[in-house]
Amino acid sequence: MTDPTDPVPARILLADDHALVRRGVRLILEGEPDLTVVAEADDGAEALALARAHRPDLAVLDIAMPRLTGLQAARELSRTQPDTRVLILTMYDNEQFFFEALAAGASGYVLKSVADRDLVEACRATLRGEPFLYPGAVNALIRDYLDRVRDGRALPSRVITGREEEILKLVAEGHTTQQIADLLVISPKTVERHRANLLQKLGLKDRLELTRYAIRVGLIEP
User: 164 and 193 in contact (C-beta within 8 Å)?
Assistant: First the structure.
């Protein structure tokens, strides 16, 4: 029988487009009495829908997912559900993604390669409102800060808007203008205008170059 004085486990949403990864992460988390997975998503858009339905305490998001990336989902969660904390779990040991994750509102950044060692503590720290950064990320953060102080510069601003990034990702995934319009509930003309702006801003010529750019910046996997 459950002891009524036991604390209620923290409720976690897990999002990764690889079912095997989700299974492994779920096993790690549900081996702990204070953590429980209440929902699983295999892309960023589904993660947002499940977050609205379940109101989890914590969302553990992969970066490279279809439809919406983990970073895009993190930004939307931070805006619409600030009480749901966000932890990025990724294969990318990459300073750019690390800084973008912090800017998107994530409280922690954990590498999949050491998830068995770091994930549980990262979840607990994030739920306590404390940041959790893997050692390489700490070094990157300190190095970037020192570089900015030395050079007298701020963090670079985003080149493209959040909506343009959504459209770039969907274009690169092969969706038609009409499909993108339907997914984002906007008109096809608006999609075309955003795509033209993307080509101009990024100095690119066509869909193929947009797709290559999306791969390079981690919006989609090659």
Answer: no
